[in-house]
Design a protein that fits this description.
Elements: H1 19-67, E1 73-75, E2 81-84, H2 86-92, H3 96-99, H4 119-124, E3 129-136, E4 142-149
Antiparallel strand pairs: 1-2, 3-4
């Protein structure tokens, strides 16, 4: 049977069939619908379980990032801030709420930007990178930093 369609076949004019033939065909269709309903319920239960497992893994990953003692910033593919961890806030001064969806104003004049600030080159090369550079904190201090960056898709 084609999925999503109920197919019936009549050997003769449906008006000439007996009531028992129609009842038999109706019972057959009901049975098929019940089986389809049961299969759908099973698939929904499996998908719900998978979603719950993935949500738990995501929560653990964010907890891991929050726990890390090193400043972490995650950028979108468009170079906008998606996430900063508490160590980032402690080191640079900006909070997650201040930066989410924006650009970090931390690159001093005459200093090369991070790969996330030069996305085309960064996303074409999936190799991890290490940079020694300078960055400006929210309160205007210039600090030496080592940046490790990788594109993860």
């Amino acid at each position: 049977m084609a999925q999503g369609w109920i197919q019936t076949s009549f050997t003769h004019d449906p008006l000439e069939r007996s009531e028992s033939e129609l009842e038999g065909q109706l019972e057959s269709l009901k049975s098929e619908l019940e089986e389809d309903k049961h299969r759908c319920e099973q698939q929904i239960a499996e998908l719900t379980k998978t979603i719950e497992e993935l949500e738990g893994r995501i929560r653990r990953l964010w907890n891991f990032f929050d726990f890390m003692p090193y400043p972490i910033v995650i950028f979108t593919r468009r170079g906008r801030v998606y996430y900063v961890n508490p160590a980032f806030t402690k080191t640079f001064g900006w909070t997650r709420k201040e930066l989410r969806g924006g650009i970090i104003p931390w690159t001093p004049p005459n200093v090369e930007g991070l790969p996330a600030e030069n996305l085309k080159n960064f996303f074409e090369n999936d190799q991890p990178r290490r940079y020694e550079t300078k960055r400006i904190t929210k309160d205007g201090r210039m600090i030496d930093v080592i940046v490790r960056a990788v594109s993860y898709s």
